[in-house]
TrEMBL record:
Pfam families: Lactamase_B
Protein name (database record): Glyoxylase-like metal-dependent hydrolase (Beta-lactamase superfamily II)
Record's keyword annotation contains Transmembrane helix: no
InterPro entries: MBL_Glyoxalase_II, Metallo-B-lactamas, RibonucZ/Hydroxyglut_hydro
Coiled coil: none
Molecular function via GO: hydrolase activity; metal ion binding
Cofactor: Zn(2+)
Residues covered by the Metallo-beta-lactamase domain: 12-192
Length: 231
């Protein structure tokens, strides 16, 4: 499976183009905030034959580029976490909600909504939806083979913000606990910043102390000495 990252827009969102080398199924995860990603994909040689667009959540920096992508790839099936519908529906005024009215965007078309554990078969490529709400009402992750695309659920050394409108901090904490039950060697592709693994984050991410406590795993400061890795 080929996984290519496109980092786009003012918020440096990572969008992911995934191509199954066997079936040639081609999937895009997240869209960026405008037409920048569509322009990138259009200029690839050869341009991808996109089968599906899977959204991790509906913040404008992840879902705001849907309309130009659907114009370029009208046959691509677009999939939204079902619980994310309220956030998706406010895309036309979401920029204003966040104090940046120029980032309000049209909604685009949703072909399918998914719930926890749903599997989407894209011409032989299997994507499993893992619901991890908290950053937004329906934020989720897509597990494809040994890859886990987590949107703004988890970052290398950090976690998604929960001080936004419609965020829920306690819910995000529970979602992270559930996510860290998945195999530690899954390759984590966050919506911003570098890749990591679940095992690396469980061992060292300063925002996962509640998960370590529940599992009886020592804090990094206990592992790395009295001064502590995190100062
Ligand atoms: Zn977000």
């Amino acid at each position: 499976m080929n996984v290519r990252c496109f980092t786009v827009g003012q918020f440096q969102v990572n969008a992911w183009l995934i191509e199954d080398v066997v079936s040639h199924a081609t999937v895009l995860i997240d869209t960026g905030e405008d037409d920048q990603l569509a322009t990138h994909l259009e200029q690839l040689n050869p341009p991808p034959a996109l089968d599906a667009i899977l959204l991790t959540h509906a913040h404008f920096d992840h879902a705001g580029g849907l309309v130009p992508l659907q114009r370029l790839f009208p046959a691509a099936v677009t999939v939204l976490p079902a619980l994310e519908r309220p956030m998706f529906d406010v895309l036309p005024r979401q920029g204003a909600m966040f104090g940046m009215p120029r980032f309000s965007r049209p909604c685009g078309r949703i072909d399918r909504e998914v719930h926890e554990g749903d599997r989407v078969d894209i011409n032989g490529l299997q994507a499993e939806f893992v619901s991890t709400p908290g950053h937004t009402p329906g934020q989720g992750c897509w597990r494809i083979g040994s890859h886990l695309f987590v949107g703004d659920t988890l970052f290398a050394g950090s976690v998604g913000r929960t001080d936004f409108p419609m965020s829920d901090h306690a819910q995000a904490q529970r979602s992270l606990s559930r996510l860290l039950e998945l195999p530690g060697d899954l390759i984590v592709h966050p919506g911003h910043g570098p890749d990591t693994t679940l095992a690396a984050e469980l061992a060292t991410n300063p925002y996962l102390a509640h998960v370590r406590r529940a599992k009886g795993i020592p804090e990094p400061s206990d592992v790395y000495g009295a001064s502590g890795r995190w100062g």
